[in-house]
Amino acid sequence: MENHEQQKTTASFNHMRSKLSFGPMVEMAREMGMENPLFRCHDRAAKATTVIGGREYINFATYDYLDINTHPKITQAVTEAATLYGTSAGASRLVGGERPPHRQLERALADFYQVEDCIVYVSGHATNVSTLGFLFGKRDAIFLDGLAHNSLLQGARLSGATRITYTHNDCEALEKLLAEKRDDFRHAIIVTEGLFSMDGNIPDLPRLIELKKRYNCMLLVDEAHSLGILGATGRGIREYFGIDPKDVDMWMSTLSKTLCGCGGFICASHELVEFLKYGSPGFVYSVGMPPIIACACSTALDLLQKEPERVHKLQHISQYFLQYAKSRGLDTGDAQGYAVVPVIIGNSWVTGFLAQELYKEGILVMPISFPAVKEGTARLRFFISAAHTEAHVAKTLDAVIDGIPKAEAIVAQYKAKHPDKFRDI
Ligand SMILES: Cc1ncc(COP(=O)(O)O)c(C=O)c1O
Predict the structure, then answer these.
(1) C or N: which end of the chain has fewer Cβ atoms within 10 Å?
(2) How far apart are CA 262 and CA 330, in angstroms?
(3) For residues 184 and 178, what is the distance between their CA atoms, to the nearest angstrom?
(4) Residues paired with 253 in a beta bridge
(5) Distance between CA 25 and CA 11 in Å, rounded?
């Protein structure tokens, strides 16, 4: 009986697993000699450089854009908070209560965004899922940019609202859809990002604001990759364009990137935030953020405001990276030179082996393939830090140029040897 039950479980899991269908590709990668680049264990905090297995690497795989992680002020604040509050909030804030760092962080973020209020969730992904999932319903429509992050898609799906995807960053296409469909729905929201995480480009926010007003929609901007990055003092896309913060209904961002913690937030009107605090399942039915993380994020936000030179350094080195890559003939797609710059290779196998060649040279960067990006646009995605130097950039991009023919040769050799087995992606 027990055996039968076990078989049933295994069989159903195998069925689920086959849906992912990457098993054969993983097997082929192994045969071709590709090491698994995922889940690498770092010996210390991963910054502009990192150490893995005792060896130092130039690191382009971490979001610590402003080089704040391990800052002594953060470490001190966290140590003091741990002594006073421990490491856990213990329960949902609704029932278990709050600690001063929760309130301080939410107040500081609302002030930073110059809006009335803020709600902090324990996860950035859950912030989008739970906020969209809770606020919208069957009679509503969610207009999503074609490259919107998975968390935004999942939230839209959970809500049961009609999902309408517009071509990435194409406001003309969005306007056509709004003109055609907006009247069919009760509430509607336009969802975009401040800086797109796979392409490193910026949406036309002033135009999106104009459209949201004309078609009576709400607007959510996910600033995961633009907070601390865009604008003269790192205040994000609103500073970049000089727009009124109140023209956006929900300013969302994660706390895991520039603010080097974990979690996410929505900055909005007091009414909306209160509605989320009493209803949004990812807040109500989930434990509160550990007070030590709230402390870390508040201190990071303070550093961002007191040390704008970090933002300037990041902006300088990102532009340097973009120009250097272009000057070497590399394809950086639509990247605008702010913290995220892809180098588009096209073929997934070549991209994977290129990342491996770079790793051998002491450079860590992640290959990104389908389904994370469109087929045929596999890329190396570089997350740039304020602490990267021009020498890091030059060494890396020169190694990319040298590595491409080597990676192509590995793939071509395997293809010639195993024409029946080889599946191109
Ligand atoms: C645009 C965007 N939104 C939301 C998230 C989710 O944030 P977190 O990783 O902090 O959960 C990410 C994560 O990379 C992201 O890139």
Answers:
(1) N
(2) 34
(3) 10
(4) 265
(5) 21
DSSP collapsed to 3 states, 289-345: CCHHHHHHHHHHHHHHHHCCHHHHHHHHHHHHHHHHHHHCCCCCCCCCCECEEEEEE
Give the amino acid at 298.
S
Q: Could you report the per-residue pLDDT of 16-37, keeping only the tens digit for each?
A: 665 556 677 778 888 888 898 9
Enclosing H/E stretch for 62: none
Spatial neighbors of 210 by CB under 8 A, at least 6 apart, are none
Q: What is the dihedral of CA 65, 300, 234, 263, to 10 degrees?
A: 70
User: How far is residue 308 CA from its own chain's centroid?
Assistant: 22
Residue 193 beta carbon below 6 angstroms from any ligand 1 atom:
yes
Instruction: For ligand 1, say whether the CB of 256 is within 6 Å of any of its atoms.
Output: yes
Q: How far is the CA of 200 from the centre of ligand 1 (A)?
A: 14
| Angle, CA 204 vertex, CA 344 and CA 161 arms, to 5° | 90
The response to whether residue 254 sits with its C-beta less than 6 Å from ligand 1 reads yes
Residue nearest to atom 8 of ligand 1 (CA): 124
Tens digits of residue pLDDT in 205-249: 999 999 999 999 999 999 999 999 999 999 999 999 999 999 999
Which of the 8 DSSP states describes residue 256? S
The domains found in the chain, sorted by start residue, are 23-59+309-417 (3.90.1150.10), 72-306 (3.40.640.10)
Q: Provide the H-helix boundaries in 166-230.
A: 171-181, 205-214
